[in-house]
């Protein structure tokens, strides 16, 4: 949770009452680095996900490093969290690409071969009066749900404050033990434990309820 305001060296005067939340899930103890390159605010958070194997030589871990930034949203200045650009150097083969297709009901996207580690970038365009009520992206046994009408991620238990642009933007990182979700350009970030740790994924499934969408 965070506050935005003015700090005079002694006292912080908040712009609003209470606190706001960008980061959620099975997490605790966010840590930021000092003197990061280019003056960026880089944050990592303790991920409270235990390994499946009780004899594993580690216990729990950290999120991916993410860059924090302040942007003007629909209800004032808010904190956004996005994966650091350096993660792009880890990309290998592109396993699936889908463009310019309608999604009515369900659309399955097969991968070229099964994979345990994935980066998924998804943009869904909503069609006017046919805007859906709910969208689900299923990866393996994990589901990422977006409530279109309320502009919220139920699993994260908070609402996106990014300006409405008629689209849903998701960037999802799948690891051995976790799924990390960056929603609506980083307005929402949350972490899910993998339901089956180390599971290889063969495809992705997009579900649209109560309307239509396009990729």
Q: What is the H-and-E element order? A: EEEEEEEEEEEEEEEEEE
Number of helices: 0
- Overall number of strands: 18
- Largest sheet descriptor: 9 strands, mixed
Strand content: over 45%
Multimer state: single chain
- Please state the overall shape, judged from the principal axes of the Cα atoms: globular
How many angstroms separate the termini?
A: 33 Å
SS-based structural class?
mainly beta
Mean pLDDT: 91
Over the alpha carbons, how many angstroms does the gyration radius reach?
Answer: 18 Å
Helix content: under 10%
Low-confidence stretches: none
Name a few traits of the molecule:
215 residues; 9-stranded mixed β-sheet; 5-stranded antiparallel β-sheet; 18 strands; 53% strand; mainly beta; single chain
Would you kindly provide a written description of the structure presented here, covering whatever features stand out?
The protein is globular. A hairpin with a 4-residue loop joins strand 16 and strand 17. The protein is mainly beta and 215 residues long.
Write the layout of secondary structure elements.
Blueprint (H helix, E strand, L loop, with lengths): L4 E3 L4 E3 L8 E3 L1 E6 L8 E7 L13 E2 L3 E8 L2 E8 L18 E14 L2 E9 L7 E6 L2 E6 L4 E2 L4 E2 L7 E8 L3 E6 L4 E6 L7 E14 L1
Parallel strand pairs: 3-17
Antiparallel strand pairs: 1-2, 4-5, 5-6, 5-7, 7-8, 9-18, 10-15, 10-18, 11-12, 11-18, 13-14, 15-16, 16-17
């Amino acid at each position: 949770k965070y506050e935005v305001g003015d700090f005079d060296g002694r006292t912080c005067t908040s712009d609003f009452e209470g606190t706001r939340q960008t980061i959620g899930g099975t997490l605790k103890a966010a840590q930021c680095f000092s003197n990061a390159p280019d003056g960026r605010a880089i944050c990592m958070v303790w991920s409270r996900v235990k390994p499946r194997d009780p004899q594993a030589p580690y216990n729990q871990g950290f999120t991916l490093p993410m860059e924090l930034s302040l942007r003007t949203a629909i209800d004032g200045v808010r904190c956004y969290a996005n994966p650091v650009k350096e993660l792009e150097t880890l990309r290998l083969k592109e396993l699936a690409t889908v463009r310019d297709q309608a999604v009515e009901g369900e659309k399955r996207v097969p991968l070229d071969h099964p994979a345990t580690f994935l980066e998924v970038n998804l943009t869904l365009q909503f069609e006017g009066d046919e805007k859906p009520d709910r969208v689900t992206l299923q990866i393996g046994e994990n589901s990422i749900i977006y409530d279109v009408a309320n502009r919220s991620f139920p699993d994260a238990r908070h609402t996106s404050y990014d300006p409405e642009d008629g689209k849903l933007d998701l960037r999802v990182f799948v690891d051995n033990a976790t799924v990390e979700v960056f929603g609506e350009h980083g307005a929402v970030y949350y972490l899910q434990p993998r339901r089956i740790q180390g599971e290889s994924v063969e495809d992705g499934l997009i579900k649209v309820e109560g309307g239509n969408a396009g990729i």
